[in-house]
Structure formats: structure tokens, C-alpha cells
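Support request from a user on the community tier.

User writes: "When I paste my C-alpha cells into the form, the page sometimes reloads and wipes my input. The last time it worked, I copied everything first. Here is what I submitted, just in case something in the input itself triggers the reload:"
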């Protein structure tokens, strides 16, 4: 069965270019030309991956991404944009995008990134058995397969990347993890913003789990090295 890719962009020439190259690479393709249509297709078509433009009519790409994550739709998203500022990249990733590409781009690079993200998703699913048990760290409970985490019985509102970062650290509980290890495990070391994105997500996790960022209980900074999650 072929993987289905949803392409959402208001520039029809870009949609045509991506659709042609994706089909040639063996993918099934669905297309949309505005944010509302894209969000609806993301739900109804159940694509395996979404290529989503930042600047869209009706509903912009950031809002589409945010709404999908709020609805617990964890389909991988590659954000396309003409904006190349580091803060824009961080914002897109914080809202749950899995990758970020700046226009103009090479169709070959898009295909490579699509395949890499789908491969990582498949590997993660293969590692999780159907009877997978929860990860319990004191008052913090994580259900990796359900994409759910709870602290003191209250469900945490985490972005996809925050959740993946938390799971990876929990699976390596007690081990000191470098920023490069975390970047490679969660972002596959693809982004020019580098390890700064790790620090941003650690800060957000602490805020959501610990409350007091300056006095962390679970996620501890190991000066000069990285971070450690412990109970």
C-alpha cells in the first residue's frame, strides 16, 4: 500500500511540481489550496504526511498545524515557507511541525525528507508493541503509543515534539543526554537552528511539568553536557 501525502499550498505551480515528483517517487497525493480545505482533508483523508505552506488563504499554515495538534492528529508535517528567520523556524517547530523547508526548494530534497520522516515514524511504531505499558516516573505518567502524558493526574498539553522529547528522555531515565543526542533522536539533526531548539523545548517541558523552571525536579541540567530526566 502506497503512502499518501497531502500537499497544501495556494501556489498551484508548487502543488503541481510536488504532486508530479511525489507520484514519480511512488506516493499517492491529495492536494488543497487553502488552509480550511487542507485541515479538512488532513482529517478525512488520513494522510501519512502533510506538506503544508505557511502563508495560506482562509487559515494560515501555522494555525492549521496548531489545530491539528490540538485535535491530537499527529500526522507528520513538513512546513514550507519563504521565511528564513530562525525565530520563524522555532515557532513552526514549537507548534508541532516535524520539519521546515524554505522556498525555493529542490523537489529531490523534499522527497528525501518525506522518506526520512516516514521511515522514522515506521521505526518508532515497530518498536512499540500493542501491549506496551505506560512509563511511570513518580507523579509523571507517559503513554507513548497514545501520545498522552499526565502529571499528578492532569493531562499535559504537549506539542508533538515536546512529547517525543519527553518520551525519549523517559526511556533513558537517569542517563545524561547531550543536546546533540536529543537533537538527533527527536529532530534527526535536520535544522539549521541547531541545539537551541532543544533548549527551547526543555524550557517548555519544565514549565508544563514542573511549574518552577528555576528549581527543576524531573528535568535537570547537567552543566556543560546536556540534560537528564530522573525521579
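"...and here is what came back when it finally went through:"
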Amino acid at each position: 500500500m502506497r503512502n499518501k501525502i497531502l500537499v497544501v499550498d495556494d501556489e498551484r505551480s508548487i502543488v503541481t511540481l510536488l504532486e508530479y515528483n511525489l507520484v514519480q517517487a511512488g506516493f499517492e497525493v491529495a492536494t488543497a489550496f487553502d488552509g480550511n480545505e487542507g485541515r479538512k482533508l488532513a482529517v478525512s483523508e488520513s494522510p501519512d504526511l502533510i506538506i503544508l505552506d505557511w502563508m495560506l488563504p482562509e487559515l494560515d499554515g501555522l494555525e492549521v498545524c496548531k489545530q491539528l495538534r490540538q485535535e491530537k492528529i499527529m500526522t507528520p508535517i513538513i512546513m514550507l515557507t519563504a521565511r528564513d528567520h530562525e525565530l520563524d523556524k522555532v515557532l513552526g517547530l514549537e507548534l508541532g511541525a516535524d520539519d521546515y523547508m524554505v522556498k525555493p526548494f529542490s523537489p529531490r530534497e523534499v522527497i528525501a525528507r518525506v522518506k526520512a520522516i516516514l521511515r522514522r515514524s515506521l521505526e518508532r511504531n515497530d518498536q512499540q508493541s500493542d501491549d506496551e505499558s505506560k512509563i511511570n516516573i513518580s507523579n509523571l505518567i507517559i503513554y507513548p503509543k497514545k501520545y498522552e502524558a499526565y502529571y499528578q493526574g492532569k493531562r499535559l498539553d504537549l506539542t508533538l515534539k515536546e512529547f517525543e522529547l519527553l518520551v525519549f528522555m523517559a526511556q533513558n531515565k537517569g542517563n545524561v543526554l547531550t543536546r546533540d543526542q536529543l537533537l538527533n533522536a527527536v529532530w534527526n539533526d535536520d535544522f539549521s537552528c541547531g541545539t537551541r531548539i532543544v533548549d527551547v523545548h526543555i524550557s517548555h517541558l519544565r514549565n508544563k511539568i514542573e511549574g518552577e523552571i528555576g528549581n527543576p525536579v524531573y528535568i535537570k541540567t547537567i552543566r556543560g553536557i546536556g540534560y537528564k530526566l530522573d525521579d
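Agent notes: The reload is a front-end session timeout and is unrelated to the input. The radius of gyration is 18 Å. The helical segments are 12-24, 35-44, 61-70, 86-94, 107-127, 160-171, 179-186, 196-209. Escalated to web team.
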